[in-house]
């Protein structure tokens, strides 16, 4: 389980960083190859970076699918909890469990839809426009991410029933800011 | 009839407290399985292609850039610079807070992030100087909302994507209203501070100001990269966001050295998960509006609204009321993604400029973020100040009223939004 | 008793007032009339239902029945032969183009779609393309280092590189602003697209090069089509023929009017190539055909060249 957690975190952080780096390189390349640099310009023009946008999009779609699963584990998905927060604890708990079950159901259904979709596309020869990778590989993000998300919902639900704790994302927490504040006080 | 069922179901599901994205998705599925001919496979297709657009990718990039900058160093230097400029007036530090929020808003695309970045540093300092806690909390909660009005802005990217308007023009259109609102919030602060005789600071010399400016220049330069880069044709808006992220990384790690290289992974992870949450909402909202379109619902609603014979003035009032109500329950991205596809066609039919309409929506979203029951800025501020939501609600009141007044101004004076983009791009919209 | 009509959902990604949009409406009227209302055609313009990248998959899934995607979209589907339409200077004239599309070569190409569950019904025009930029493009050397916007296509990428330009893939919706701010220096478009997207406002020069062609194929879901009663199919084919003639006529008229209007606006200066310059362009771009042979198929390229030489 720890391994899965780390893999998930590692995948989405890497996708985020890599996509940023790729677009950065593509922009710098476009800028440089517009400059009159003689032979260097010819070399630069020959380098093909037109796939950068496509790669970036696909990386972010994958990041979104797996990141959404990670978000369930860390409680980042926002809901309208003003009403249920006014209910008595037993009732509130029932709604919370209902919500988590609904999440698991929805993502489970979507995962299955995605899987059959990938299966169908897998029997065609569709490729992406720029990189020409088979589309079924690209679309694999939908079933994989959704099943993982469904699993995470169930995991959170079991944990909630056992302990009464929900993962809660603290929007006011920022990495490194505590050090900064301590530094300011010192 | 179908429209009524769809919206009722969505509302009920949302009120159970489940994530908004899940309630959108479940509404779509229920509808698909029971009431329409749309093949279920197109859902899987839309789940992937809903966010398959390079313009949308500006959102993760801006979030990443913002997270690199939120690490204190940039915000602290901006606060120092702002203090050296306005600290000697009534309520000096509070005014500096407004100005620092406006400066930070110009490098960050999100409001809560602006509240966190500036608030975490300035609020403790204000309390130490003898300001009442609720005064500080009120100033920063509302000024932080500038984050989505002063470009760059994640909410503007969402609006642009849903309505096919130009992000560049929207960004440009946010500048004047953003500065104006910053001024009005500052004015409110000044008036209150003068009345209660809150502390002023020693006037900084021009030398001190210059020094403070120089120290904050690295952060301020980002404004130039984003707006200058887009306007001068160096980058498209999405590329500008990516460049901003790289630049912010360099500043945080190598120039200001606030961030250790081993913390970068965590920043990437946090940004990825925040982006994924927004992209997941977008995905499901796209699904939702696809379903509505297949059932001709936006067209019918638009026709109905048009049939009411509302002129532009009455229509805009209705829009404001609707959005303010929505702001009670939902956060901005969901509101924009659900409401814009319905309201936008009517606005266009009534001859309202799409860019002006976008700014109006953004200002509405700003108001919504600062009032309960759902208001992200309030939650964040309550996290920083450890004040309760109801206490904070009272605290933000004076500034919130200013914002409402400003909303009316922006609604009925399109020139505030359109003057600058028209100047820069010729006619927009 | 009255039978429920057969519904054809016809989805496309352009505005109603474009040749494709108008022809789709015309087909709707003709088809509904020819079948006495037994067929109902619902047209969804402007990517209302499906976007550019989704519509082919939606058609294969049966979510829509009819589309008119641009010919470049069939490459990613696995029918790379269609990329032949992107090759520079492969059609020296409209007659040559129609000889190919209306003749056995065009029919053969549509046949290739059947293995993908698609039946091809007709070719529709957009038109021949103008090269535009903020500097005059008279000789191939004028392209050196320019950032030229293209649609995602290996052939167009090769074409721009062959001219010494730096091709940039950008979404259609981004082009205007990218040209205005200078993210890209130029692009290529048929006159009507250039005009409706107001690109003439942000391009100083246009070269009437007619170097390439942009067209569409009207396609239907094969399973749906084969399942129609044969009399209905015949009636629809008739309606499509008429709509196609209509489309080609207004495509031509639109391009002529657009070019006239852009010339009148004075914002773009249009350059006609001398025969000698034209020859230079052709010579510079000739290697693209060779380069793309392995993708598209040498036989097909040769067959079209032979047809064009007639
Ligand atoms: Na901002
Ligand atoms: Na609110």
UniProtKB/TrEMBL annotation, chain A:
Q: How does it sit in the membrane?
A: Multi-pass membrane protein
Cellular localization per UniProt: Cell inner membrane
Establish whether keyword Magnesium is in the entry.
no
TM annotation in the entry:
12-32, 95-121, 133-154
In terms of one coarse class, where is the protein primarily found?
A: membrane
Q: Name one GO biological process term.
A: C4-dicarboxylate transport
A single Gene Ontology CC term = plasma membrane
Gene Ontology molecular-function annotations: transmembrane transporter activity
**What Pfam families does the database record attribute to this sequence?**
DctQ
Annotated Tripartite ATP-independent periplasmic transporters DctQ component domain residues:
21-162
Annotated keywords: Cell inner membrane, Cell membrane, Membrane, Transmembrane, Transmembrane helix, Transport
Extract the InterPro entries matched here: DctQ (IPR055348), TRAP_DctQ (IPR007387)
Function field: Part of the tripartite ATP-independent periplasmic (TRAP) transport system.
**What does the subunit section of this Swiss-Prot or TrEMBL entry state?**
The complex comprises the extracytoplasmic solute receptor protein and the two transmembrane proteins.
Q: Which family does it belong to?
A: Belongs to the TRAP transporter small permease family.
Full protein name:
TRAP transporter small permease protein
What species is this protein from?
A: Pseudoduganella plicata
TrEMBL record, chain B:
Provide the transmembrane region boundaries: 6-33, 54-74, 94-123, 135-161, 167-193, 217-234, 240-256, 268-290, 310-330, 342-363, 396-420
List localization entries: Cell inner membrane
Q: Name one GO cellular component term.
A: plasma membrane
- Pfam family membership, one: DctM
Annotated keywords: Cell inner membrane, Cell membrane, Membrane, Transmembrane, Transmembrane helix, Transport
Q: Which GO terms describe its molecular function?
A: transmembrane transporter activity
- Name the principal localization, coarsely classed: membrane
Family matches, as InterPro entries: DctM (IPR010656), TRAP_DctM (IPR004681)
Q: Domain TRAP C4-dicarboxylate transport system permease DctM subunit spans what residues? A: 7-416
Lineage: superkingdom: Bacteria
- What is the protein's membrane topology class? Multi-pass membrane protein
Q: Which family does it belong to?
A: Belongs to the TRAP transporter large permease family.
Give the record's subunit note.
The complex comprises the extracytoplasmic solute receptor protein and the two transmembrane proteins.
The role this protein plays is:
Part of the tripartite ATP-independent periplasmic (TRAP) transport system.
Q: Do you know which PANTHER family this protein is assigned to?
A: C4-DICARBOXYLATE TRAP TRANSPORTER LARGE PERMEASE PROTEIN DCTM, SIALIC ACID TRAP TRANSPORTER PERMEASE PROTEIN SIAT-RELATED
Protein name in the entry: TRAP transporter large permease protein
